[in-house]
Amino acid sequence: MSNNQLERRRDQSAAAHTAAERSRTTVTELENRLRTNANLTQQQTQALRNAEAEAKRLKRSLKTQSRDKTRLEKAHKKAVARAGKAQSKATTLEEKYGKSVLADLVRREKEKHRASAVAPVSPALPAVVPPAREEPAETPAEPAETPAAEVPVEPPTARATAARATARKAAASAATPAAPRARTPRKTATAVEAPPAAAPTRRRAPSRRTA
């Protein structure tokens, strides 16, 4: 066999090995890509499943939240109504309590004022009694003068006896202190005391005639 044939076969064999090596490299690359694709497909499928499950969970959660929202809104309305009623009741009771306290205070003050008006007032210091107003000593009323033509002429003995009796009565009345008495009009006192002053003269007339 000539050298040219050998070189040609050698070149052909080298080209075949190179082609085979390329084919194996291509197969390996394709296998790697297939494995990668399978892995990605598996991961994405799992992610899709997880996403679907999460979507279902979120949908259920949304429905639950919607039901809770409706229930809470109703409960909130009822609570607001109850709170308004409770506040109104508390305000009414507070007003009644204030009126009761005010009425009790007014009643106590009235009772206190009535008790102070009815109870006797005890003075802290002894009451000062104003001194009795001294009235001027009443002078015995003088007998009314009679006209000279009508007065009988008495002897000196009877006149002296009447004078002494009048002097003794005046001395006795001056020695005895006058008791305080209600003040009466001067005209009444004069009208009451005038007759006794003139009485001695009239009672002495019979003794003069007897003498």
Write a structural description.
With 211 residues, this protein is mainly α. Helices cover 76% and strands 0% of the residues. It is rod-shaped and about 230 Å long. The chain starts with a helix and ends with a helix.
Concise summary:
The protein has three helices and no strands.
Kindly list the characteristics that best describe this protein.
single chain; 211 residues; mainly alpha; 3 helices; 76% helix; disordered C terminus
Topology:
Elements: H1 3-118, H2 156-175, H3 186-210
What are the segments in which pLDDT stays under 50 over at least 5 consecutive residues?
140-155, 187-201, 205-211
Rough outline:
rod-shaped
Q: What's the total helix number?
A: 3
> Radius of gyration, rounded?
75 Å
| Largest beta-sheet details | none
Structure classification: mainly alpha
The oligomeric status of these chains comes to: single chain
- Order of secondary-structure elements: HHH
Mean pLDDT: 74
What helical percentage do the residues reach?
over 70%
Q: How far is the N terminus from the C terminus?
A: 238 Å
